Amino acid sequence: MNQPVEQPFYFAVPLDFLLTHGELARRQRVNAEVFADGDVLHDLDPARVSAARALLDSARLGRRVHGPISEMALGAFDPRIREVSVGRYRQSIAFAEALGARALVAHTGFDILNKRDLADRYFALFVPSLRLIAREAAEKGIRILVENTFEPSPGLILDAVDAAGEENVGLLFDIAHHHLYGRTPLDEWLACWGNRIEEVHLTDTRGDWDFHLAPGTGEIDFARFFALRRELGIRPVFTFEPHDLDAFAETIQFIQAHPEYFT
Q1: 27: domain CATH number?
Q2: What is the domain extent for residue 211?
């Protein structure tokens, strides 16, 4: 049997998964980045949130919240869609507060297929949305970490974060998203964001889809990533995103096989 992982690693888990596999989280010492998409937030039962918090509190585990992804567009040209997207993130802030989390992951919602030539307009509208969310989160003592997804270059998010001008907003680098959708070389992207990267999502992938494989089971060069990370002095929180129990076990094996990556 695998030995428990050492903190401060986090694992991204849906709320239902955490409640169903609570004993596994307790046994493996798994800090949780709890994911609740819009449909879950819409009908969220406070009793389930209380149960999740009680589980994490009793096991003395850390917790973060991963904000909604599906249909979210914080820079949408349609003001009603922006309004709904901001509203869902406000629900995520309330969810994070109830769970006792102090960080909330946010996606820009930028769609490269439809907005490739309209990125400046999209991110100009994203900035006030981000500012609204960040200010509400700051009142609760929560940081907002903006994650790269379909953005081809690091400047789109970095410039937006700087324009928002809120002290509780940082950056989250997802290596699989960069591998699939980034058009800026890895070394240049990491150098651009540097030690403003507060969290890294570590999953592997292959082909042209984000499969959320365990690190080392796909095609990403993790040795190069960790060498660059060390060279640039980036010391983030590391979060893994296995989507099933097999990938969870393989991820723990990766952590235990490569302690040098995390020092």
Answers
A1: 3.20.20.150
A2: 10-262
